[in-house]
Amino acid sequence: MAYRETEKMRNRKVEARKRIFQCALECVMEGGFRSAQITHVARAAGVATGTIYRYFDSKEELFAEIFRSATQREVDKVAEALATEGSAVSRLETALRQFAERALRGPTMAWSLIAEPVDPKVEAERLLYRQAYARHFEQAIREGIEEGSIPPQEARQSSTCLVGAIAESLVGPLSPAQAEAEKKADQTNSPDKQQPLVDSIVCFCIQGLTGTGR
Amino acid sequence: MAYRETEKMRNRKVEARKRIFQCALECVMEGGFRSAQITHVARAAGVATGTIYRYFDSKEELFAEIFRSATQREVDKVAEALATEGSAVSRLETALRQFAERALRGPTMAWSLIAEPVDPKVEAERLLYRQAYARHFEQAIREGIEEGSIPPQEARQSSTCLVGAIAESLVGPLSPAQAEAEKKADQTNSPDKQQPLVDSIVCFCIQGLTGTGR
DNA sequence: ACAAAGAATGAACAATGATTCACTTATTTG
DNA sequence: CAAATAAGTGAATCATTGTTCATTCTTTGT
User: Fold this and answer.
1) Which of A57, A158, B112, B166 could be a cystine partner for B32, CB 3.0 to 4.6 Å?
2) Which residue among B131, B158, B175 places its CB closest to the CB of A204?
3) Distance (Å) from the C-alpha of residue A191 to the closest C-alpha of chain B?
């Protein structure tokens, strides 16, 4: 007997995996999935490209995991906002507003998660997560219908419309082209210009649900 | 003097371009942009790959043109539906309904146009065309506001929400995965199952606009 | 028929980037 | 220390596709 994985080694490996993951995430945050190449990630993490394949099966797998982790955070935030006190309508309103505001605050990453062209495996995750958002909204809509604050409707379909409306509304403002234009004009995304955008998205959504609120 | 482009030749070239274009379109209709490779198109059109580059600058250019042509048809249909007689609301309703029904009738192509991952140049066209849809809707919304059938609102933002809601609602039903499942179950997309889907999308949208209609 | 000009050809090429693997280095244990 | 085992390395390889271009085939006008 000569070598057996020891605790110290196990920890070191866990650390290495974490570091690779973290660096890959940073690559995406900086330049989107497009520019996140294995070579870059390897360099950033200070390992050889081959090493990455000891920890992840493939590039797609790695970035699917990145996507999942980043998006799950947002889904959780939505779920959280929907789990507070208050009427279903006001909770939905808060959740939508928060989602949009968070996206506009971190536009590069948000764009990557919402609209950037990505590998098929990552795209598959995206579809799944859009459904995840929709399911949370759906639940809240059902509650609203039950408590009478939302008229009876196909909760499933309405929730999908919600997801589509908010995503589409953000695509333009988040797009790299837009970001470029804003960098030239003023300092950064000024919140004062974003407020009305968010307001009108939320208005449309709530009214689509309830028939009131404008 | 020995050769000068003659009428006959000019026509033949126009024909050739059309044939290549048509075959490329058919490739997309069958398998989406993904499977539409230059080699395939060339084979389908009965020409060499090099010939294609006499008629189109690049693959992206060719498929961007395909995309434009196919999407313009849909935009025109929407514009047409919005240009009829009647209140803005009822025209919008018709336009939305027609759009969804057309997409569900040709799901493969619709999916390619709406949601398939595509080359950057084609993606750019897609963004442009989404704006084109939105602008038409926006115009109708303004008219509705003027005539009093739609309450005052940010027409621009609302139109974007419309586009997003309807697109997102269709992504699921149009996706190849879904198509696969339906092929197993029954014959094709049965219109009787689509009706409620379309209805609820349209309901949500109209209510989002007007606050009534459920 | 022949020369000039253009069109068509398709195999070779180029570019991109993920993945592999023969080899090196590090760790553990007797 | 030496044997055993695993982790790490990174240049080479592979795979995929779009694009080019030297060559061949067609058309046209004299």
Assistant:
1) B112
2) B158
3) 17
Cα B45–chain centre separation = 24
Mean per-residue pLDDT, B22-36? 94
Cβ proximity of B115 and B107 under 8 Å: no
On whether the CB atoms of residues B102 and B166 are closer than 8 A, the answer is no
What are A110-154's pLDDT values in tens digits? 999 999 989 889 998 999 999 999 999 999 999 999 999 999 999
CA nearest neighbour of A157 among A143, A137, A128 = A137
Put simply, the answer to whether A214 touches B165 (Cβ < 8 Å) is: no
Q: Which residues in chain A are contacts of B201 at CB distance < 8 A?
A: 157, 161
B115: pLDDT strictly greater than 60: yes
Pairs across A and B, CB distance < 8 A: 117
Q: How far apart are CA A134 and CA A164, in angstroms?
A: 9
Residues of chain B in contact with residue A175, where contact means CB-CB under 8 angstroms, are 127
The three-state secondary structure class of A81 is: helix
CB-CB under 8 Å, B169 with A168: no
Give the list of residues 6+ apart from residue B180 with CB closer than 8 angstroms, or none: none
Q: Spell out which residues of chain A touch residue B131, defining contact as CB-CB under 8 Å.
A: 172
Letter string b/e over residues A157-190, b meaning 16 or more CB atoms within 10 A of that residue's CB: bbbbbbbbbbbbbbbbbbbbeeeeebeeeeeebe
pLDDT, one tens digit per residue, over B67-76 is: 999 999 999 9
d(CA B214, CA B211): 9
Q: Is the confidence at residue A192, as pLDDT, over 70?
A: no
A165 and B167 within 8 Å at the Cβ level: the answer is no
